[in-house]
């Protein structure tokens, strides 16, 4: 089964009438992880020195941030899928990853000499980051938008933005395994820009596709 056939099969499962929302979300999350992993391993794969990298705190911290973002945004998206959703209920979910990034950046600025900050921020693979995080996240975003159609979000753009944020978190988690730039300064800059692109795309897509 090629990638297109897999996407169609997963989308058909999510659209199947009579499914509970828990089943829909489970299918969307599982499918998103499968498709993101498939695209990642087809196009990139892990970095060559990953065995050594996993022994460093900076490398592992990337997964803490991106994993927290994916989990928090997914939880917030589920809340926002219903008309009674209130923004204040979403804030605790959405503050986790930014706070982690701020802490990581602060510690990095303390640990490194100031004359190395710019080089760490720019890194060596910013273009690759801005290219592949959105590419890896496109299929997960499509599945999340399909899942939102089973709900009744009163603010489709907000729900779609959260879908993009969740897809971006998943994509960034996979991409982090390939990325040789481990500094929180790099992550805070380029990962954020890449994920924002998916967030914006999700907001636009939901306004067009998620109606009730």
Structural notes for this entry:
The protein has 212 residues and is mostly helical. The chain has helices at 3-15, 21-43, 50-53, 57-80, 87-111, 117-122, 126-148, 156-176, 184-209. Helices cover 78% and strands 0% of the residues. The model has no long low-confidence stretch (mean pLDDT 88). The protein has one domain.
Which key features would you list for this structure?
single chain; 212 residues; mainly alpha; 9 helices; globular
Helix-strand layout with pairing:
Blueprint: H1 3-15, H2 21-43, H3 50-53, H4 57-80, H5 87-111, H6 117-122, H7 126-148, H8 156-176, H9 184-209
Radius of gyration: 17 Å
Note poorly predicted spans: none
- Which percent range fits the helix content? over 70%
Proportion of beta-strand residues: under 5%
- What is the CA–CA distance across the termini? 33 Å
Shape: globular
Listing every helix as H and every strand as E from the N terminus to the C terminus, the arrangement reads HHHHHHHHH
Mean pLDDT reading: 88
Number of strands: 0
What can be said about the biggest beta sheet? Answer: none
Please state the structural category: mainly alpha
What's the number of structural domains?
A: 1
Number of helices: 9
């Amino acid at each position: 089964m090629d990638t297109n056939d897999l996407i169609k099969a997963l989308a058909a499962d999510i659209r199947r009438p009579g499914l509970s929302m828990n089943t829909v979300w489970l299918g969307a999350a599982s499918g998103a992880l499968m498709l993101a992993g498939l695209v990642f391993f087809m196009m990139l794969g892990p970095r060559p020195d990953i065995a050594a990298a996993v022994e460093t705190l900076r490398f592992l911290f990337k997964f803490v941030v991106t994993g927290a973002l994916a989990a928090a945004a997914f939880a917030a998206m589920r809340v926002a899928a219903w008309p009674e959703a209130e923004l204040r209920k979403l804030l605790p979910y959405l503050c986790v990853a930014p706070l982690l990034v701020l802490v990581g950046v602060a510690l990095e600025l303390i640990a490194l000499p100031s004359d190395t900050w710019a080089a760490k921020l720019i890194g060596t693979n910013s273009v690759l980051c801005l290219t592949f995080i959105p590419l890896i996240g496109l299929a997960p975003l499509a599945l999340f938008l399909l899942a939102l159609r089973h709900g009744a979000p009163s603010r489709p753009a907000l729900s779609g933005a959260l879908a993009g944020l969740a897809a971006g978190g998943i994509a960034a988690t996979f991409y982090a395994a390939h990325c040789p730039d481990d500094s929180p300064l790099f992550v805070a800059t380029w990962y954020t820009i890449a994920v924002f692109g998916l967030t914006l795309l999700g907001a636009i897509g939901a306004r067009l596709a998620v109606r009730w």
